[in-house]
Amino acid sequence: MKQSHWICMVYGLVIFYISLLSVDGVRWMALAQMSSLAHISDEDNCETLAGLVKRQKKLCKRHLELMDSVRAGAQMAIEECQAQFKYRRWNCSTENDKLFGNVILKQGTREAAFVHSISSAGVAHAVTRACSSGQLRKCGCDKTLRGRSQENFEWAGCSDNIAYGIAFSKVFVDARERSKRRRNKPRAVMNLHNNEAGRKAIEDNMRIECKCHGVSGSCEMRTCWKAMPIFTAVGAILKDKFDGATEVKVKPQDANELIPLNPQFKPHTDQDLVYMEASPDFCEADLKTGSLGTHGRFCNKTSKAIDGCDLMCCGRGYVTRQVRITERCKCKFHWCCHVKCKSCERTVDEHICE
Amino acid sequence: MAHRQARVTRGNWIILFLAVYWIILLRCCYASWMYLGVASLAGSIRDDTCSEVPGLVQQQLQVCKDNPQSLLCISEGARRGILECQSQFRFERWNCTTQRNYTVFGPVLRKGTRETAFVYAVLSAGVVHSVTQACSVGNLTDCSCDMSRYGEADVDGWKWGGCSDNVAYGLWFSKTFVDAPDAVGQNGKTVRSMMNLHNNEVGRKTVEKLMSRKCRCHGVSGSCAIKTCWRGLPAFKDIGQYLKDGYERSVRLAGRAQTKLRRKEKSKRRVPISHEELVHLSKSPNYCKHNPKKGILGTNGRVCNRTSKGAESCDLLCCGRGYNTQVVRHVERCQCKFHWCCYVECKSCETMIDIHTCK
């Protein structure tokens, strides 16, 4: 009796969270906020996940074992977004649940483009990793790579089955944009493009990893396998695409095609991010644009770039406070076997936007 | 004549008054002799040319009247300074843009920022450079080569000869002309005018410091049996580079000065400010956004480098707004071949280059 009461409470909390995080297009990312206690193991759970559209719920039931990977992918995407945007005015914050996008992602800004691409990449990455690690019944390693390669090494080991991860990400993440209601809407076309660009960032940057098997490590025999780039690298690639994103509009004759707003600019490729609306400056908190403002953010006094106090604080100035930090230092190894360290204190200046 | 005077009605007086007021305003806020650097002095210099130049103060007019030919040198010096400024700052957010009006640099110089400091120094150095060069070439009647050491033999066995550049005259001239607007303040020296004077001096000292010995050999088939040397001016690009380095290290001044400039940084107050340090009074704006009131063009549309890390990188130049990409067709002559006799045949090669411009 007591236990069922407790479970009810957990689910109640999850649903509360999800309803707060109603982000258009990437609503399913609410999964990232689920308590890790709530393992998605039952088909009935799928119905309670409020962030999902009908088709996603169906997919959830059919691929129940993948749902934990989807959640992990969403978490990874949010973490990477926050790491890449740590020193920018918009820092991918999810602190205020309503603002990680709710408004911001409704507008087709560059930031929205990035969130879409990284989330779709996150799912593809997490699902592929789960395949490789053998957690899933439906997929395993990529078995198409066999035999001897042109570079004279043997394909062996477990190549990441990126095709499966990408296919699932395509079906699951794109589901909302492919719904009847949103089909052919400019914003849906934009989201689909950016989702695809995110997946391409993994697919086009697959690496070949090798191991040597000769005597005492010599490379007489080499076996290699294909591996995904680490997710931080994917984040960096997408951040680079964010900087050079193309502003687009829908082609007048074809609602499914996007063309650069300014015909003089280079047309975007499948790998590039596209957006439709200019971003706000994110200086002040504004519910309308989804900006949190930069009051209270840390800044770099010496930098002239966007992380510098001048640009980060939007000219409002900053306060400097001294912080004492304690570090382990002068470590010494004692025989055998322990390391003794002293703790050193030093003061560091912190600059905070007014 | 009488007819014309009759037409000077009340309205005309007001316009005249406004015009005079405007000129006074310009004079107070801008070093408007700099206008000579962008204006074209068409044709020859006449006697009344001096009074036609806008914004010269009394002492500058006097210098001009005493030696009208010097106006060409000043103009050339200012132009050299402006071009060097633009070359040194071509990759920075503020790229030393000039306007084709009396203010030259627009409202940017109104504030005593680092950029203002650099402009004053480089233009003052420009005048020294061009006047000194004019002396050596013989374009000015008041000066010629520096013959003070002519004929002296050095211990190393070479002789001073040729035409040593007469930098002393250039320095003196620059001091009398360039310093004039700030030297004759009616209500005492302000910190700002002291800052300008200091930076003018830094520019001049830089020219003097970078003077170098240049030699030539006269022996059989170029051997150095006989060697004559003279002191020559540095290339102006070197002066610009030196001052640009000084710009990066420029010293912020305390807002109130009694009789001497003081550093803002309290811990270094005791350290005197040398004539190698540029000084500024206020912090520079970031020059990111277009702001016509402040004379800032903004970096929208500026070409940036996607891969570099320096000031020209898209990251720094675009202030985080990102960049657009354009494909530009670049046609070059290539695979050139010499045919007997005598012409060269080339093919034209086409390459497509991505150009990035700030959003």
From TrEMBL, chain A:
Localization per record: Secreted, Extracellular space, Extracellular matrix
Keyword hit for Secreted: yes
GO cellular component: extracellular space
PANTHER family: PROTEIN WNT-4, WNT RELATED
Family: Belongs to the Wnt family.
Function: Ligand for members of the frizzled family of seven transmembrane receptors.
Name assigned to this protein: Protein Wnt
Originating organism: Lymnaea stagnalis (Great pond snail)
Taxon lineage: Eukaryota, Metazoa, Spiralia, Lophotrochozoa, Mollusca
Automatic annotation (TrEMBL), chain B:
Molecular function as annotated in GO: cytokine activity; frizzled binding
Protein's GO biological process: canonical Wnt signaling pathway; cell fate commitment; neuron differentiation
Ranges that cross the membrane: 12-36
CDD domains: Wnt_Wnt16
GO cellular component terms attached to this protein's record: extracellular space
Protein localization: Secreted, Extracellular space, Extracellular matrix
Main location (coarse class): secreted
Swiss-Prot/TrEMBL keywords: Developmental protein, Disulfide bond, Extracellular matrix, Lipoprotein, Membrane, Secreted, Transmembrane, Transmembrane helix, Wnt signaling pathway
Entry superkingdom: Eukaryota
UniProt xrefs under SMART domains: WNT1
Family: Belongs to the Wnt family.
Protein's job: Ligand for members of the frizzled family of seven transmembrane receptors.
Annotated protein name in UniProt: Protein Wnt
UniProt lineage: Eukaryota, Metazoa, Spiralia, Lophotrochozoa, Mollusca
